[in-house]
Structure formats: structure tokens, C-alpha cells
Amino acid sequence: MSSGKLVCVTGASGYIASWIVKLLLDRGYTVRATVRDTADPKKTLHLRGLDGAKDRLHLFEANLLEEGAFDAAVNGCDSVFHTASPFYHNVKDPKAELLDPAVKGTLNVLGSCKKASIRRVVITSSMAAVAYNGKPRTPDVVVDETWFSLPELCEKNQQWYVLSKTLAEDAAWNFSKDNGIEMVTINPAMVIGPLLQPSLNTSAEAILKLINGSSSTYPNVSFGWVNVKDVALAHIRAYEVPSANGRYCLVERVAHHSELVKIIREMYPNIPLPDKCADNQPLVPIYQVSKEKVTSLGVELSPLEISIKETIESLKERGFVTFDSSNL
After folding, report:
1. pLDDT confidence of 328, banded at 50, 70, 90?
2. pLDDT of residue 250
3. Would the pTM of this model clear 0.90, i.e. be above it?
4. What is the DSSP code string of 81-113?
5. 6-192+225-251+288-301 homologous superfamily
6. Mean pLDDT on 98-102
7. Extents of the domains making up the chain
8. Strand-strand pairing, 222-227 and 253-256
């Protein structure tokens, strides 16, 4: 196994990162975890409570926009998992809130990795950096890791989060090629499944909005979906498997929100769910995403139904939603 190996996870309090930390500890790694504020229990308590954390988890404070902030955390590590990047929708100042932290933050972390001669860096990118290139996405189209989103298109459509992930990944590839860093990116779509952190994350919130009675309609959108545990494991395998390289798209399947509602209704007949689409347009089509590459890492993607159930149970357990499941 990996006993004694020292690795660093940036943005460790986040949804995906918390699971990466958990699985690394389970596998015997010693983990340095960076958070913005080590004194904030909301960011650290759930990490300190993980099995193995007492002996093998070390928290470091680091700010994405501060040059050299990650030097101490990565120095002496075998590998770095860079997950820190903001993801939310109501953006007032895209440059300050999303673009700078994503791009400059990534380059800061890679700069620290270069100084520390880190052998392999695994970066959390997104399908946002893959699928937005103007090509049609219809049921017979298979998207794979050779697709790249086009920054000018994202900018034109004001898709700021998509732009932030596209520019950050692009900057990372250029930096790693110029500086001889071995880099792998994990590109998940909407990540759902159980929450370890106390705060609500953006992708789990998409499921919460369907089940908390806040809307009588569901959005006319189709997204790829994937389980957070699979995403975390893919990051670790991208470091452990010597032949891992390039980009890995992680999508168990693409589903329209109408299909999510149908799946939830079958599992939880008593939850009041939205029963119509938010607009009268044709439903946004689904498409396919290749699983060939991620399978080569030895990661089997959990079925969407399981991921949805785990998300709902976790949201309930954490008090984000209440419903009576006694007769379900």
C-alpha cells in the first residue's frame, strides 16, 4: 500500500477534496491539507475527525492568491492534489471571484510544486473545460478527453465558471510542459453523493432544490453526473498508476433534470417534486461521455441512481432537508 508516503491536498475542506483526504488516510498516506483558515472549525473539524487524521493529517494555511503560500505545504511531498478553485453561480465580479483564484491559484500551486521538484501533480479540472466548444451535444455524440472548451465562446456566453476552469486548465498544461512537471487532470461533471463537509456545496444543492419544495418546476438542462467517491478515487489512482496521463473525463451518465425527478419519484414517492419543466422549449438533449480512459485507472463509476440516493440521504442526515421516510 502507500504507508509513509507524504502527499498534499489543496483546498482540503471542499466537497471533493474532503473525500480525497479521507481515502488517502484510509490507504495509509500521510496528508498535508491546505485550507484558507486553520482556525475555522467549519473548514477543519470534519477533516480532523477522519480515521487516521490524528496521526497522519497535518493542516496548513494557504491563500490561493498569495505567491509562495503553498511552498511549506508541498515541500517534501511525493505528490500534490490541487483541488482548490471556487464554484458558485451568482457572480458579481467574475475576475476577482472566479477567474483570478482559478488561474493564479493554479499557477501558484504549480510554482510551489516546481520549487519542491514534485514528480506528479493531479489537478481537479472539470467537464466545464471539456464540453463547451460549440460542437453539437446530442444522444449520438460521444464527448471525450480530446475536446477542449473555447475561452472566447465561454466569454461571449458569460459562462464565467466554465471560463475559469478552461483558462486554469490551459494555464496548468502550459506551465507543466514548460517546467517538466508530470500533470494529470480529473474532469468530473456535476459531482454528487454523500457530504463530509458541514456546508452545502453547489452540485449537491442542485439535488436539494428538486426535493425541498422550493420550486414547482425543474430547469431545462442536461448535465453529466458522477459520484464524489469515484471522483476522489480517480484522483488517487491518477497518482498511483504509473501510466496515468493527460485528462480523465468522469461522467457516469448525462441526464436531463426531468430524468432526475423521475428517478427520485420512484425512490421517494412521498417527496413533493416539481412536475413540469421551467420553460416550453424542447428538452435540452443528452449526450454520451467516454468512460474508456477512467476505466483504465481501475475506477468503476457508481450508477446515477445510487449517487442520487446517497445525496438525498446525506442532505437529510445533515438537516438540509426534512421528510418522512418511514413509509418509503
Report:
1. very low
2. 98
3. yes
4. EE------S--S-HIIIIIHHHHHHHHHHHHHH
5. NAD(P)-binding Rossmann-like Domain (3.40.50.720)
6. 81
7. 6-192+225-251+288-301
8. antiparallel
Q: Tell me what pLDDT residue 326 has.
A: 52
Spatial strand order of the sheet with 253-256 comes to 190-192, 222-227, 253-256
CA distance 96 to 316: 34
DSSP per-residue string spanning 9-33: EETTTSHHHHHHHHHHHHTT-EEEE
Kindly give the residue spans of alpha helices, DSSP state H, lying in 250-303: 257-267, 292-295
Cβ contact 139:256 at 8 Å: no
| Assigned C-alpha cell, 82 | 490541487
pLDDT of 312 reads 97
35: its cell numbers? 485550507
The per-residue pLDDT for 327 is: 44
The three three-digit cell numbers of residue 276, written as one number = 413540469
Taking the C-alpha atoms of residue 174 and residue 197, their distance in angstroms, rounded to an integer, is: 33
Measured in degrees and rounded to the nearest 5, phi and psi for residue 254 equal -90, 130
Q: Are 125 and 119 a contacting pair, CB within 8 Å?
A: no
